[in-house]
Amino acid sequence: MVWLNTVIQGTMLGGLYAMFAIGLSLIFGVMKLVNIAHGDLIVLSAYLALVITQTMGVDPFVSLLIVVPIIATVGYLLQRGLFNRTLGDDLLPPILVSFGLSIIIQNGVLVAFSGDDRRLQAGPLEVASLRIGDTVAIGLLPLLQFVIAVAVIVVLHLLIRRTKTGRGLRAVSDDQAMAQVMGFNNRHMYGVAMALSLGITAVAGVLIAIRGNFDPSAGPARLIYGFEAVIIGGVGNIWGTLLGGIVLGVVQAIGGAIDPRFQILAGHLVFLLVLALRPSGLFGVKA
Amino acid sequence: MGDTPLLSLKGLSAFYGDFQALFDIDLDIGGGQVAAMVGANGAGKSTLMQSLVGLVAVKAGSISLSGEDITRVAAHHRVDLGIALVPEGRRLFVSLTVEENLLIGARSGRPGPWNLGAIYGLFPMLAERRKAAITTLSGGQQQMVAIGRALMSNPDLLLCDELSLGLAPIVVREIYSALRSIVRDGLSAIVVEQDIQQATQIADRLYCMRQGRIVLGGAPHQFSRQDIAASYFGV
Amino acid sequence: MKSNSVSATRHSRTTHLALVFVGVCALVFASAPLWAGANILRLLTDFFLYLSLACLWNFLVGYAGLVSIGQQAFVGLGAYGLFTLSRYTGLNPLVSVLIASVVVAALSIPFAALLFRLKGAYFAISSWVLAEVLRLTAQFIPQIGGSSGMSLPIEAARALGAQPAVRFTTIYLAAFIALLMILSGIYFTLQSRTGLALTAIRDNELAARSNGVNANRTKLIVYVLTAFGTAATGGLIFLQRLRVTPDSAFSISDWTALVIFMVVIGGVGTFEGPIIGAVLFFLLRGTLADFGPFYMISLGAVAILIMIYNPRGLWGHVRDRWHLQLLPLNFRILSKQDS
Model's pTM, two decimal places? Predict the structure, then answer.
């Protein structure tokens, strides 16, 4: 029964990883961009939430109403002002520019907030839990976070499948040149994709900061978790990515239950295992 | 037809990478006119189409639409001005359904006779398959979607690049008979083909390209098969 | 123009001058233990080691297109290889560095088998994950000191010289020789068939493949050679430090981020670029390093600006502007009138 609890906890955590991952795979799908600074922008949104909760005295969940639009706008502007200039046949500029951005954000946050561990406070919700039977207990906070994660992913799915903007994003992703001929300004569409990507990850960034500590150097790990979830789930498959995040979360939880030092390593090892045995991902469609 | 032609190219030159694909092209297309553009593979026909929609940058010369210079207008604004392309190889959006592909075409919101109903009237087969994935369609059906997608923007000028490519002769005839009914109501078009037969049947003007230049132009009946063959192959 | 009136050469007056300059530099550096004090020797040792890392990263990224942000994996493995061999075999540290590098090069083959499954930026991130796996694994193994790491046994340090001054000189010379070997190794690889294949792949991978260039094999060769050189450099870096921990050995900021900035600023994909970048970096380091995070922020910003406005870096800019090349790497076509 201890194990059941561990698996449940891992699943809840995996929901957040899936949100990191979906942000990554959205921009990869639309403009073949991999943003190395993804994790640092996740951490930046946590710091933004920290400032808002402290100055305005609001709950972290309420702070999302401000954090998400701000980070989404930052994403749009970054794409238009920076990443759009790097797109082309050469794969080096986007990687190195986003790597440079990652270093800038990490050090910028370090200057502004020092290297201390921080955490967002959610009050009594943090300790509340739902008991099922005698042995299984689900923390209300992780449960709420998981529900939010799944809801965000469902909304994104509907947005991409059912709306005009989503149709445009899919068209741009399929054939950039023809999308242009059809009247899409690709540079704007890329900006929209980045805004969506970072909006989603800002939600995850704030949620995960209620649950565990963060510091200026926490970004790379978050980028890697998102990336691992994408590969484990199979590139380009939104539900596969959700499952990939859950697999990663569960593996980390089990690893951590065996030995706390083993938590992160267990996740990495499963990622490498998937890469070795099933490079198209556990739930991916073979290309 | 007014004094200013619908489309007017003056001294157009364009490069494909380091390779000059178009040399000093002059061309006028009047309102309601259908021009057939023939030539061998690599003659520059597709590059010409791509430069008209803004995908290939023009190095020298100008493109005017209804007297307005659009040489430097960005590709994504050209559909708003009334140019639509049915590209070589169809290039449909594969993650979109048939109907979604058509709706993408309507993005510019230009008024006119073409809407979903009109397209389905023209190609009833597509109405039955409106929710189908593009990859499940036959080549001919895909070509119909590509034509429909272009028409949905209610263009003034329709560019058709190699409609018959990879299609069975019977399907080609079907597509061309649809095209004939499309241009009957006064839509201007440039129809690029390697197959001289098909293109000349619906055209008021025939142009032949070779090595990036227009080497022959006029009313189709002016030229004998030998004339055309000579300029086509340059012999 | 008749065919006999055209010739192709790698040499020009500039390349001859540059070779003379390189020769003079080599003499000056080789004789440094005779004229330089301990501080200058240490600074130069650092410089050589960083320059080695920069040239190797550039070889991997700029020539083979394998954008790795996980080269700290090989620095760390080289370092741990040295410390482990020193603790358990008592071999001379320099011999240990060499053995460790060979082992790491062999290890890099299965790494490549795994990482080459991903392309572009996905390759980049997974190379980083691999380095993280090695760092976390090192924390787990008590025989190599777990997360607190280990020190070089005193006997091993003594084997390099009884007094610190002698030791510094030995390490200095080892770093200098390693750099020369790495530079000439890269130079000769670029002039070999592999170098031609790399150029072909860089220009057009598809065309190269269809002309019989085995792109994966060529990239593997570069990956393994780079792993070898990076491990050797890593061994020497930590030989100088006498102490290794998982966090210091597998540090992305020390062994990859700074190196990336040097190469990007100097010029990715040019032979001279990393050298220019490393020289600039060391000239500025003394004055700017105290600014800590601001230093990193400005390096990041400069790297971004260069990538956007001039992706071939300072040297690429100079070269394109004045058609200059210092080292005889590319052929220039000459007609009789010119020569």
Answer: 0.91
